[in-house]
Design goal:
- This protein is α+β, with helices and mostly antiparallel strands and about 230 residues long.
- The chain has one domain.
- It has three helices and 14 strands.
- It has helices spanning about 10-20, 40-45, 180-220; strands spanning about 1-5, 25, 35, 50-65, 70-85, 90-95, 95-100, 100-105, 115-125, 130, 140-145, 150-155, 160-165, 175-180.
- A five-stranded mixed barrel has the order 4-5-6-10-9. Strands 1-8-7 form a three-stranded mixed beta sheet, with no helix packed on it.
- Strand 4 (about 50-65) and strand 5 (about 70-85) form a beta hairpin.
- The chain is elongated and about 85 Å long.
- The relative contact order is 0.15.
């Protein structure tokens, strides 16, 4: 079996284009881990185009004949859309996989297992594919806690090297929270984002109103003067 890896520039460029502060990179072709920002649920909510909760009902692997890259795609049947208005089935792509005797190993890629339930923070790459934000960091497997009877969400740090916003090593520990807490934090992030956007719109409206007021005042001062308003 021959093993190859996705080229670094393609993955890094696609990630930076859509993830803004949440970035992914490989440190050299022989890197043992993908470098990912240790973003909070709230930060990922702000960056995601959608957040979905559901069960994986199918998986397929294919090769892009033009680039030679292999993609593993999971079909997730949405039970609940926590953000973004999606419904039905959604296809979530992850780089890497195996086609025949050719395998592409991408460290930290989100490998969504058929039959399992997940909460996934989604972003759309430049080719229009939906992917997990921050690779496996943005894919939370949902399991029932037998002791409490609650659904618990946990992501994975396998194949990842976590850093903070300064680029320094961050705590190498996966996130674990109950489903109600996940819903609450995503809803709070959405409310905070909407409030920021409301204030930004109000500030724009205030500035436009001030510009109109000054223009009208200038018009009154110059009306009837040579070169002024008629």
């Amino acid at each position: 079996m021959r093993t190859v890896r996705h080229p670094v520039p393609r993955r890094l460029a696609a990630a930076l284009a859509a993830l803004a502060a949440l970035w992914i990179a490989h440190v050299g072709a022989a890197a043992l881990a993908a470098v990912v920002l240790r973003a909070s649920v709230e930060e990922m909510s702000d960056l995601a185009v959608a957040v979905v909760h559901g069960q994986v009902v199918a998986r397929d692997v294919s090769m892009d004949r033009e680039t030679g890259n292999i993609w593993t795609t999971a079909t997730l049947r949405i039970e609940e859309c926590l953000q973004g208005g999606l419904s039905g089935d959604v296809r979530i792509a992850a780089p890497g996989g195996q086609v025949g005797t050719i395998a592409q190993d991408v460290h930290g890629a989100a490998r969504l297992e058929k039959g399992a339930r997940y909460v996934v923070f989604l972003w759309k790459d430049p080719d229009g594919r939906l992917q997990s934000l921050g690779e496996s960091w943005g894919a939370f497997r949902v399991r029932r806690d037998e002791a409490t009877g609650e659904d618990v969400c946990s992501n994975s740090i396998d194949g990842l090297s976590l850093v903070d916003r300064a680029g320094k090593a961050a705590e190498a520990k996966a996130e674990r929270l109950t489903m109600p807490e996940m819903r609450r934090r995503i809803a709070a992030a959405r409310a905070a984002r909407e409030e920021r956007e409301r204030k930004a719109r109000e500030e724009i409206d205030r500035r436009l109103a001030e510009m109109r007021r000054r223009a009208e005042e200038q018009d009154r001062r110059t009306r009837g003067r040579p070169g002024g308003a008629e």
